[in-house]
Amino acid sequence: MARLTDREVREKLAARGVESLTDAELVSIVIQEGSSGLSAVELAEKVLAGNEHSLTQLGEMDLRRLRQCEGLGMKRAAWLSAALELGRRRQIEEAVEAQIITGDRDVVQMFQPLLAGLAHEEFWVLYLTTANRVIDRVRISQGGISGTVVDHKLIVKRAVELLAASIILIHNHPSGSAEPSSEDLTVTEQLIRAASLFDIAVLDHLIISKESFFSFRNEGKLMS
After folding, report:
1. Is the Cβ–Cβ distance between 5 and 29 less than 8 Å?
2. Exposed, middle or buried, 100 (CB in 10 Å: 0-12/13-18/19+)?
3. How many domains does the chain have?
4. Average pLDDT, rounded, for the chain
5. Are 80 and 105 in the same domain?
6. Which residues, in sequence order, are bridge partners of residue 205?
7. 115 in the same domain as 210
8. Full-prediction pTM beyond 0.90?
9. How distant, in Å, are the alpha carbons of 2, 177, 178 from that of 174?
10. Is residue 138 one of the residues assigned to a domain?
11. Kind and range of the H or E element at 141?
C-alpha cells in the first residue's frame, strides 16, 4: 500500500474519521510536521519502528527519551508526550467512573494504566462501601525501585474517617515480576490485623507489573 502524504492523511481524517487512520498516521497528525527531509508520516513510521511498532512501548517513554528519537526533537516530542498522556488519563478516568468493584479485573483495569509503567513503587488503597462502591482511592506512599514505606495506621485511620466497610490494597513492582516479596506478605498481614480492630475487611492486595498482576485473594495468601 502506497504511503499517504501528510496532506492526504489530514484529508483521510476529515473524510473517514480518526478511527480510519493507522498508528503511524495518527502519530503524524500529532507531530504535525516532518524533519530532516522526512514527511510527518515518514517520521512517525521511523519513531514507531524504533519502538517495535508498539504504542504501549511508545507511551512508556518520558519526554527526555522521546526527544532523543532521531528527527523528533523537543517540540514534536512535547506534542507526542502530551497526546499519549491524555490517552492514559482518559483510560484511568473511564476505569474510575465504573465505581463499583466486582472483582480483581476491575481493580487492575483501574490501576494498570497508572502504575505499570512507573520506574518506582507506589502503594494505593481503594476504600469501599458495603456494596463495594468506591468511596475514595488514595496514594499512600511512593518510593524507589525495590520498595516503599507503608503506614498501616494511616491507612486504617482514613478508612475510619470515610466509614469504609472494606479496603483493597494495590502496589506495583517496577522489576516486572508480580510475585509478592516477604515484605509484601508482612505488610498485608499487618493491615489485616489493624483493619479488623475496626471491623474493616481487607478484600484483596493486588501487585501490578507491566505484563501481569498478582492477587493475594486468588492465590490463597489473604489471611482471613
Report:
1. no
2. exposed
3. 2
4. 86
5. no
6. 169
7. yes
8. no
9. 41, 8, 9
10. yes
11. strand 134-142
Query: What is the layout of strands, in order, in the sheet containing 134-142?
Result: 134-142, 122-128, 166-172, 201-208, 213-215
* Pairing mode of beta strands 134-142, 122-128: antiparallel
Q: Are residues 174 and 209 in the same domain?
A: yes
Which H or E run includes 207?
Answer: strand 201-208
User: Cα(106)–Cα(189) distance, rounded to whole angstroms?
Assistant: 23
Q: Last residue of a domain, which of 61, 76, 92?
A: 92
Query: Are 111 and 43 within one domain?
Result: no
Q: Which residue has the cell 524507589?
A: 144
H or E, element range at 171: strand 166-172
| CB-CB contact of 12 with 41 (8 Å) | no
Number of residues in the chain: 224
Does 17 map to a domain?
Answer: yes
pLDDT digits over 181-205, tens only? 999 999 999 999 999 999 999 999 9
Q: Which domain holds residue 108?
A: 99-215
Which residue ranges in the chain fall short of pLDDT 50?
none
Cα–Cα distance for residue pair 154/66, rounded to 1 Å: 38
How far apart, in whole angstroms, are the C-alpha atoms of residue 209 and residue 126?
Answer: 18
124: helix, coil or strand?
strand
Which cell numbers in the block locate residue 204?
Answer: 484483596
